[in-house]
């Protein structure tokens, strides 16, 4: 669908809610996922339309009936409002076209008596991890908690830290990568650092351990773009080890990228209690890390 804008100054999510049959929530999600473009460029929901802007809408209409499935879920913390789970590497977070079952969401719907319905195919999911990224995730049990947690992440009030093993010896003890990330114009399944359609993206990193061929780093996110750490580290010449998509280094095995969400800290949006969690990487992550440590000796 293409729409030519006939006015100026209004937020695009508000404007499209008025001139289409889509809800504001669905429009905001489509903008975030890159399915709504303005003059062939990705924008944010706060973009203010201009007269004669050409808006392209490519929202998938397919309804997905999510079936609860019994599966093992490593629950680190749980109360009446939210849970923190340790996602295994190799588990897809939510259903999508071509993959409607065996996802974390299917398991959450089976396990929990209540779960937020924010977004029809992502109930409970406040923030995502890639399929092969392991570690800590926050799950919302009701819509109010979901909305509050989403706002906290947007306002950078959730401290999220990752362990990443990257190729090469990183020379700086600390670094800050500020580079806009958007969909790769040559491959819509990938993301890239780009000024064309990129959104502000910030990754802070610090070196934990240097080895001959690789470096173990801690990454702290200020923004949460899709594939952010993988794209940013590849951009500075240190792609994540075992990443099948970014970087052109050898693939060690089928474990996937060496990226683990190991630390979460935030103030509970309802009880106002400070919650802090840390989770060791999975055994296969440690096996690969120890392999490089043995090379170093």
Relevant CATH superfamily of the largest domain: Pseudouridine synthase
**Could you state the order of secondary-structure elements as H and E?**
EHHEEEEEHEHEEEEEEHEEH
Reported by name, the CATH topology of the largest domain is Pseudouridine synthase
- Arithmetic mean pLDDT: 90
Number of strands: 15
Low-confidence stretches: none
Largest sheet: 9 strands, mixed
- Structural class comes to alpha+beta
CATH architecture of the largest domain: 2-Layer Sandwich
Using the alpha-carbon principal axes, give the shape: globular
Q: How many structural domains are formed by the residues?
A: 3
| N-C termini distance | 60 Å
What's the CATH C level of the largest domain?
Alpha Beta
Q: Which percent bin holds the helix content? A: 10-25%
With helices defined by DSSP (H or I, 4 residues minimum), what is the helix count? 6
What Rg do the Cα atoms give?
A: 20 Å
Strand content: 25-35%
Question: What would your notes on this structure say?
Answer:
By secondary structure, the chain is an alpha+beta fold. It has 3 domains: 2-57, RNA-binding S4 domain (Structural Genomics Hypothetical 15.5 Kd Protein In mrcA-pckA Intergenic Region, Chain A, Roll), CATH 3.10.290.10; 62-155, Pseudouridine synthase (2-Layer Sandwich); 161-261 and 285-296, Pseudouridine synthase, CATH 3.30.2350. It is built from 6 helices and 15 strands. Strands 5, 6, 7, 8, 9, 12, 13, 14 and 15 form a 9-stranded mixed β-sheet that branches. A hairpin with a 2-residue loop joins strand 2 (36-38) and strand 3. The mean pLDDT is 90.
């Amino acid at each position: 669908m293409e729409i030519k804008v006939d006015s100026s100054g209004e937020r695009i999510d508000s404007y499209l809610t008025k001139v289409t049959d889509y809800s504001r929530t669905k429009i905001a999600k489509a903008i975030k996922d890159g399915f709504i473009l303005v003059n062939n460029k990705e924008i944010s929901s706060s973009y203010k339309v201009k007269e004669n802007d050409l808006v392209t809408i490519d929202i998938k209409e397919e309804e997905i009936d999510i079936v609860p499935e019994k599966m093992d879920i490593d629950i680190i913390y749980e109360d009446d409002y939210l849970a923190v789970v340790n996602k295994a590497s190799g588990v897809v977070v939510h259903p999508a076209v071509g993959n409607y079952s065996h996802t974390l969401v299917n398991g959450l719907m089976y396990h929990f008596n209540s779960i937020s319905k924010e977004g029809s195919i992502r109930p409970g999911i406040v923030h995502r991890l890639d399929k092969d990224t392991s570690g800590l995730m926050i799950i919302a049990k009701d819509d109010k908690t979901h909305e509050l947690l989403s706002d906290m992440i947007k306002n950078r009030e959730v401290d999220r830290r990752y362990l990443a093993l990257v190729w090469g010896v990183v020379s700086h003890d600390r670094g800050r990568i500020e580079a806009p990330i958007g969909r790769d114009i040559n491959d819509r399944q990938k993301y890239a650092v780009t000024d064309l359609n990129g959104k502000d993206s910030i990754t802070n990193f610090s070196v934990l351990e240097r080895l001959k061929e690789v470096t173990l780093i801690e990454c702290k996110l200020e923004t949460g773009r899709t594939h952010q750490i993988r794209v940013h580290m590849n951009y500075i010449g240190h792609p994540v080890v075992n990443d099948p998509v970014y970087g052109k280094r050898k693939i060690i095995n089928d474990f996937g990228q060496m990226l683990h969400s190991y630390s979460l800290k935030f103030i509970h949006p309802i009880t106002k209690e400070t919650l802090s969690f840390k989770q060791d990487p999975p055994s296969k992550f440690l096996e690969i890390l120890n392999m490089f440590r043995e090379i170093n000796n």
